[in-house]
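Loading example: each entry is read as four labelled lines plus one structure line.
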Amino acid sequence: MLGTGLIGMFYTKTLHNQRGKDRVHTVYSRNEEKAKQFAKEWEIPGWTTDMREAINDPETDIVVIGLPNNLHKQAVEMAAEAGKAILCTKPLARNAEEAKEMLDIVEKAGVFNAYLEDLVFPPKTLKSLESVERGELGKILWVRSRETHGGPHSDWFWDIDQAGGGAIIDLGCHCIEIARNFIGKSIKPVEVMCWADTQVHPIDAEDHAIGLVRYENGAIGQFEVSWTFRGGMDLRDEVAGTDGTIWINHFLRTGFEMFTAGGKTGYVAEKAESDSGWLFPVGDEVHELGYVNMFKNIFNALDNEETPMESFYDGYVINEIIDACYRSAGSKQWKPIKLQEWRGESKVEGPGKSSEVDEKYLLIKKERMPDGKTKLIMKEKTSGKIVEKILTQSK
Amino acid sequence: MLGTGLIGMFYTKTLHNQRGKDRVHTVYSRNEEKAKQFAKEWEIPGWTTDMREAINDPETDIVVIGLPNNLHKQAVEMAAEAGKAILCTKPLARNAEEAKEMLDIVEKAGVFNAYLEDLVFPPKTLKSLESVERGELGKILWVRSRETHGGPHSDWFWDIDQAGGGAIIDLGCHCIEIARNFIGKSIKPVEVMCWADTQVHPIDAEDHAIGLVRYENGAIGQFEVSWTFRGGMDLRDEVAGTDGTIWINHFLRTGFEMFTAGGKTGYVAEKAESDSGWLFPVGDEVHELGYVNMFKNIFNALDNEETPMESFYDGYVINEIIDACYRSAGSKQWKPIKLQEWRGESKVEGPGKSSEVDEKYLLIKKERMPDGKTKLIMKEKTSGKIVEKILTQSK
Amino acid sequence: MLGTGLIGMFYTKTLHNQRGKDRVHTVYSRNEEKAKQFAKEWEIPGWTTDMREAINDPETDIVVIGLPNNLHKQAVEMAAEAGKAILCTKPLARNAEEAKEMLDIVEKAGVFNAYLEDLVFPPKTLKSLESVERGELGKILWVRSRETHGGPHSDWFWDIDQAGGGAIIDLGCHCIEIARNFIGKSIKPVEVMCWADTQVHPIDAEDHAIGLVRYENGAIGQFEVSWTFRGGMDLRDEVAGTDGTIWINHFLRTGFEMFTAGGKTGYVAEKAESDSGWLFPVGDEVHELGYVNMFKNIFNALDNEETPMESFYDGYVINEIIDACYRSAGSKQWKPIKLQEWRGESKVEGPGKSSEVDEKYLLIKKERMPDGKTKLIMKEKTSGKIVEKILTQSK
Amino acid sequence: MLGTGLIGMFYTKTLHNQRGKDRVHTVYSRNEEKAKQFAKEWEIPGWTTDMREAINDPETDIVVIGLPNNLHKQAVEMAAEAGKAILCTKPLARNAEEAKEMLDIVEKAGVFNAYLEDLVFPPKTLKSLESVERGELGKILWVRSRETHGGPHSDWFWDIDQAGGGAIIDLGCHCIEIARNFIGKSIKPVEVMCWADTQVHPIDAEDHAIGLVRYENGAIGQFEVSWTFRGGMDLRDEVAGTDGTIWINHFLRTGFEMFTAGGKTGYVAEKAESDSGWLFPVGDEVHELGYVNMFKNIFNALDNEETPMESFYDGYVINEIIDACYRSAGSKQWKPIKLQEWRGESKVEGPGKSSEVDEKYLLIKKERMPDGKTKLIMKEKTSGKIVEKILTQSK
């Protein structure tokens, strides 16, 4: 385990809180005290302030990178050299160029690689993805993924040089990949429109951004990210298809509500802003956020010599999309996504637009009116004229 | 009452279902049968197929325009000529040019004019606007307003010539004005970025669109409109400010839930898609959608010789924003909003970004960590360096 | 308007905040200052501290009683003598004996009488009652109605002599009548089981109680009332029928949610406990609580010489049920409801329990299993033996 | 694993779907085909139709009893004789007498025993229990636990001889123990009031029941159970304390909502009633229902030679409470709970009722009024008179 920040803690908690065989054997931190304390708190046998030592430790089968963004590449290089399986936290890199280099390193070295994108693994998300795959929503037209809160916990996130950006690089990477999973990872993302601004904090990076990613089949992945949100962590996904809709709330409204007159409350949930009044805790936080299923998917893939659901290639695609976002925000224009390599399908079309009523008409809409009657709105094929017709029989 | 479609019905129902003095005296429809039936159903003394006759009727003090978009201007001309008070449904016109002409007509004639934007008048919205005015949310940074359903009821909406556009002109007009009210009607909207597509229906206009309207103070009004949504009518607003958040759900999740094994259900709610399983009716639909408060505001304004909350000028501003949306969608660029006349404030700035901790540091973030400790993330003023500090005393 | 407490304020606000013809002409309070101030605040022409004067005022057509419970009867006597229409707040009386006397007085005098039970008139409740009447829920089996908060606003509520009881008489009267409306006002309530305790407050009356009212057809009306609840006013109804379910939330979860860092918030909602953090305001409070529809129903009934939806007889029935509750709580047994006069139906049976599969079997349950198969659980008619059968074809 | 019904499936799924070391080694069913198929589906090495063989298998360390209620005792006898650790599903027995015998058997044999009450282990419940233990809700006054659906899956549940009762024995055992955990397992349950009826199904046992369990400190545990509910499985807990409130929804409203036009949907959730329209799936069903945490607690207890959170003694207490419920339902009176052995505390008092304002007055209520003023309602100690006082300064 490289890194002892919040994410290192979440990863370790996930692994150690189960009755599983998967445990952290040694932990690395630049800071000796943090390394020691972390090892003690989570009952980890070893600790070190020497990254290479941690990686090369013969007990280490798997290197989990939970470091600031600017240190990912170096850690990947060392781990690939050592021939270890590599799990890297999100975002993969600070930009697409760096991500591509890291992808090339692991693929050249032939080591197992997984991209730690926990937010495609929440139980609700996995079940939703199954529904989408079974066709219950028809063709996906639009996905909104939103992650907003009051800003990250560690200093380096706020430093554009270490992080590579602001809320987009920190949170947008999640939202982009969530939408990509719903729309279909084999569908090519082609262009991006993005607004980004620094509305509240005295920093150089953006603290609020909204982006639209257009896929080849016309589907739109919309992300909303912010470090300015008040009220806790807002983590929601909305999926709209031709035949259905899914709304998921991962954090603030999950059927768990508590009012307390206050004074005695401990930890409520990640990024919660208050400890009295109406509070909205989360049941099993590491499970709801996908950590449990993510590691299960990765370790099973490793055991079975398969590719995990999220690999370095996915991380690279996301970094390309993010780069396009920054280009778009700067130029105030839609910008193409410059994938150097596309491993999915090509020329996928959107849903067809024609539903025939009969030889003469296409159906635009069928609706039940307040009076119980059914109305058809149709387009005459030859003239293009739009007409309506009330059906005399109900339903 | 000019028009006997769904909107004419909602307007009349609103007026006639109260113990008030405000009643419809005569109704006009192009179609004789519809005019007759509407008059009978709502106990309206007069009906006619001659618009001028309806307007010039000496019993008519107020002309309510509930006609297709392409007929608004003609009706306004006649009513202004007759010197009657004019209430025009949304959108004011098919485009900004037409809207400006209508604005000029009523202002030159000196007649009372109101723009029938019901969705800034729902009880929840009015109360939210009061909260925002009292400063409970701080400075408003972002507003999302969403209206999506399976498409409108009448044929003319689907015809781009009669309507002037698709989902943007039909639904975007609501969402744009909702955001404008929350951000502040005196703040100038300056530019627009918009995506629009025809994803599902065999029509020429857009059936799905998303837009961002940037205001002079940096605030963003985001609209999401669609005629492709499945599951009923999704009508939600989200407001984010520096000090707070508001989430309003007007339709599908209002604390009213019903499961029925089915077979006997009548009308559930506007645009509902099914009549068995879990259904989400709305309590008092015309009240929840703002009609009751809207007419109260307008009639009180008329009685007191004041300007109503929404006037033709507001309708014109909205049409200018919509025109910019279509230009943006066509050009794939942000486009300026070309207001010929601005009646609000100018040069309004956004929230400041600096909060001093002491002489040396600016505060970036203060956060309570899972272990109960408080962490400050700060920027050193001179170097710009970002540092963190753990406070030893809690809170 | 007799009374200037919270209820008098809500009644007056309801009437005066609409564009209606119905206004308060004179207000009575025992306290001169309160009478004056109330008249001024609500622009009421007259005020007095002499109840008889208010009632006999020739401008007074309707007497609205919003006084403490122990003063209802006296006011009814005076008003009946004066031949005025009488609207009395809830509960009708402190006990069934007093209620019966009041019923006899108004019926002997032949004056219009209405019982001001607002909570059967919320928009969601009225729409639900229509659904139930249309049979969408099948036969009603159970209704839960819950009203709990931190206790009433005025001193007299807490005094058992003036009020006649505690949370049951204050809040149970609402819940009992809500359930009665859903189950059917023509179905006879026959017996009651009630728990009541004084858990928190230093008073003689109960501050928490739960009761079950059994109706002749086997349906159960369950009420939960409390003056010990934390978090605001919890006002929910749940209705379960053989074919469906309704869940209504009138107050704390109505699709209106607000987070504020605090400091500037004014009035949130009746009985709200905090003004920062997550708050749950209500849109149009007097409408959501039924006041608007209640007065509309009553005034329309008065205009049309009909009986309003809730009359003194209903108030009397409720007082009889409450009396049985206190007897039950004291004796720890189910107690019969001693209606001196029953104006509804008799001998109404519950839903039948037999659904034939074929000559040999009755159906107990049909269910779709996780594997998609359908299972029947049946009872063999002759032997009473219970067997299951898996259908080979799905659905 | 003894038993291959729904519960056996849930238990096995829980154990096998994790990366843990805990696996089922052999499965027993009376029915050979079921045993074989279950073993195959869940990759269990052994299967048998001979219960003793399964228990005595040297690979078997732990016997998990997932059999119909009437077979629990026999299985416990065999397993205790074999000296194996025993985990028995809910309810422990058909009645208190049988439960006491089973408790005596395992305690005499000195074998590890755990009671498989999954519904005190859902993540939301465990977190809530921690909040209650930290005092965030003050003293617990009332708990409502509700489990209702359309009836169980297997035939034997519906047969009163095999099951020992109906909805109370099937579902009430959960709700009773949930309330007991919130109120405090060391607080003695003293008496019970219960209504039970057979409203819909052609069976001898109750299909709908409501009960109140009174604890020594005055707290009330309320259960609502039904096999007549429509709309899926309603699984909710509500906890009210002197300082706070908790509302948990485990199943139908957990922030996961889906609309589908239908036709393609598979399994939605346990007891779901439809597969189109608005559906409410559950994320990770076995986790949300507590199975994962339950087995973790038990196996950790076994490893550490501790008592698990729920043991046979708890199961016995619940059976005594249920017996009292049936006595109460039959006699229409509160009935005492006849615990033969009480292992908790005695003479625990409820929350005190006195809060002094000053020498003269006790505080009844402090409330913020709509006008922003604060009102005190107080009781004069000597006279008992109730008075109110408006504080001139706000807050």
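Chain B has a mean pLDDT of 93.
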